[in-house]
């Protein structure tokens, strides 16, 4: 790791100020991606601004079916939240299968979506739930937030404060984990609203990161069954092809994971 | 360089170190607590697992500066005086180790999962919760046995204490 200077922010305003007063600072929360990336010298921020002690980023609140999760909430806290489980158990299931227990004790929702790793789980949930990403400056719909591989709509000094969504009537998530890294080789989040609206979001498979699949959405809006998902052929163009699997292999995985996600919903 | 202060195994400590110092190196090189191991150094193997404020974390993936002000428990702080912690005793009794390199992390992870699940731990849950700990010797069977035995014993002890 290259040398860096550590700062601990006490509030959102303090974090923005600290970041602005240094050359090439990065925000860090759980650090479960950033610290390993710095160790590999793939990132070399001059300064780190630690958000882990910022109270404004904490807390889960559920009012009726409206859910708000602070960006600093760890995967462990989401996985074990009885409040979230009561209205959206699929999100608890997803959080309970990120990384391993030690990573889940540190890693945060805000950090995961701000990083937008193409194989991360949370981007699929945010897109599938039609969540709103609340920052210190504005509110961004998930559809406009995830813009490409490791790219988001966030400005340089913008901080994800929370995410909000209305829990759908039914939701499910299923991923095919890479046998070594356990990252999603393909993960599919499906959600159906009381008005019949369906969203299907796919992570791990897209060459440009997380995306919605219209064909699966249409099929599942017609019939919310694994069989309906099974009838959808996914076009491999635009999908990732690497040593772990070809685009054609991932295309098939999208259909299979969609089937399983519906079955689990 | 910054002065980093925290509580390690109940003792207040403070050392000068570079901001990029990892918690595991702070423990090993600055405090000479070498029970916590560096295995893969890429957050996968779990040989570096310690407790930070009551939760098991990977100390190779946390800066000492991030841990400043927190309560750290390492494998050295687990035994009460000369008596092995029930998890340590169970690893010994069930031959839950061979070369021993992964053992400190395994034991810390085991204590963490027993704290979270209590005596209700079953084999499937133990195996799922060992996702972040790699052992290259044992094939995990005796580690799982040891954790289940310790969970039973600690659960029984907890019940006795409550009665």
From TrEMBL, chain A:
Stored InterPro entries: CO_DH_flav_C, CO_DH_flav_C_dom_sf, Diverse_Substr_Oxidored, FAD-bd_PCMH, FAD-bd_PCMH-like_sf, FAD-bd_PCMH_sub1, FAD-bd_PCMH_sub2, Mopterin_DH_FAD-bd
Name of the protein: FAD binding domain-containing protein
Lineage of origin: Bacteria, Pseudomonadati, Pseudomonadota, Alphaproteobacteria, Hyphomicrobiales
Species the sequence originates in: Shinella pollutisoli
SMART domains from the UniProt entry: CO_deh_flav_C
Keywords assigned: FAD, Flavoprotein, Oxidoreductase
Residues of the FAD-binding PCMH-type domain: 1-170
Keyword match Oxidoreductase: yes
PROSITE patterns according to UniProt: FAD_PCMH
Pfam families: FAD_binding_5 (PF00941)
Automatic annotation (TrEMBL), chain B:
Pfam families linked: Fer2 (PF00111), Fer2_2 (PF01799)
InterPro entries per UniProt: 2Fe-2S-bd (IPR002888), 2Fe-2S-bd_dom_sf (IPR036884), 2Fe-2S_ferredoxin-like_sf (IPR036010), 2Fe-2S_ferredoxin-type (IPR001041), Beta-grasp_dom_sf (IPR012675), Diverse_Oxidoreductases (IPR051452)
Keywords: 2Fe-2S, Iron, Iron-sulfur, Metal-binding, Oxidoreductase
Keyword Metal-binding tagged: yes
Annotated 2Fe-2S ferredoxin-type domain residues: 2-78
Matches recorded under Gene3D superfamilies: 3.10.20.30, [2Fe-2S]-binding domain
Protein name: (2Fe-2S)-binding protein
